[in-house]
């Protein structure tokens, strides 16, 4: 079909209506073929290609499930309190407050205000990382020859910059991120041991404990020793649910977690949000 004229370009574009690629959002999300929730509750359904990114604002109580479809996805995650971007995921506090450097079910993702942004309510992977952050332009250029967003080997930070800009955020608003599905462990001598993936189909589910802006970059882990840029599709599904309430076991798993939930509840109550 000729696209040399405006009319030809328009006809070509309209002819693509209804076609699908492997990695793209489903709009509306209700058209997702196998929703993991009650009918009509799905609010986000997307497959993110390797070397790509996505972002969304989610309401408090929403559950977000990430699935490593083929075993080589790596979901680098940043969270911000929506409308208050100065309150954001603080990886250092998430680790030190909970006395735990390894992510998994029951772990709380904390801000530097001592409040819970999200909780990990399910995990079938166990291969995650709160230590290394994501890849950078310099790192990827040195390893793969290029790290720009449009290259075959985009860096996670460069993709985060694009996702951030679409939510009114700047590069200075990008703190260290968490990584899901490609993990590391600390050896006795303090060095890193890359543990890789748990394999295809592994998933992790987060629950938003505040209204959140979510940024995700699906790129190789910076400690991945393979010389090739390997990154496979990531499935992202989110649905309406309820935030964690007093009496839920998650509130009382640890004294530190209990305090973080109390801080969150007090703040939301003072704003008329809980």
TrEMBL record:
<feature type="domain" description="DUF1989">
    <location>
        <begin position="46"/>
        <end position="212"/>
    </location>
</feature>
<dbReference type="InterPro" id="IPR017792">
    <property type="entry name" value="UAAP1"/>
</dbReference>
<feature type="region of interest" description="Disordered">
    <location>
        <begin position="1"/>
        <end position="22"/>
    </location>
</feature>
<protein>
    <submittedName>
        <fullName>Urea carboxylase</fullName>
    </submittedName>
</protein>
<dbReference type="InterPro" id="IPR018959">
    <property type="entry name" value="DUF1989"/>
</dbReference>
<dbReference type="Pfam" id="PF09347">
    <property type="entry name" value="DUF1989"/>
</dbReference>
């Amino acid at each position: 079909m000729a696209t040399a004229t405006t009319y030809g370009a328009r006809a070509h574009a309209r002819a693509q209506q209804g076609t699908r690629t492997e990695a793209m959002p489903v709009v509306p999300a209700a058209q997702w073929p196998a929703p993991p929730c009650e009918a009509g509750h799905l609010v986000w359904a997307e497959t993110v290609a390797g070397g790509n990114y996505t972002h969304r604002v989610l309401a408090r109580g929403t559950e977000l499930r990430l699935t490593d479809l083929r075993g080589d996805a790596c979901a680098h995650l940043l969270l911000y309190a929506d409308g208050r971007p100065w309150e954001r995921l603080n990886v250092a506090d998430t680790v030190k407050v909970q006395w735990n450097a390894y992510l998994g079910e029951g772990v709380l993702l904390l801000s530097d205000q001592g409040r819970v942004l999200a909780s990990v309510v399910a995990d079938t992977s166990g291969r995650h990382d709160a230590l290394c952050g994501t890849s950078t332009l310099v790192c990827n250029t040195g390893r793969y020859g290029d790290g720009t967003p449009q290259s075959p080997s985009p860096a996670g930070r460069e993709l985060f910059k694009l996702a951030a800009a679409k939510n009114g955020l700047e590069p200075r608003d990008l703190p260290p991120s968490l990584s899901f599905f490609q993990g590391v462990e600390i050896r006795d001598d303090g060095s890193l041991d890359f543990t890789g993936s748990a394999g295809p189909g592994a998933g992790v589910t987060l629950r938003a404990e505040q209204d959140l802006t979510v940024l995700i970059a699906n790129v190789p882990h910076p400690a991945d020793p393979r010389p090739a840029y390997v990154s496979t599709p990531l499935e992202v599904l989110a649905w309406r649910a309820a935030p964690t309430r007093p009496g839920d076991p998650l509130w009382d798993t640890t004294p530190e977690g209990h305090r973080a939930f109390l801080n969150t509840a007090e703040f939301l109550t003072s704003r008329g949000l809980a």
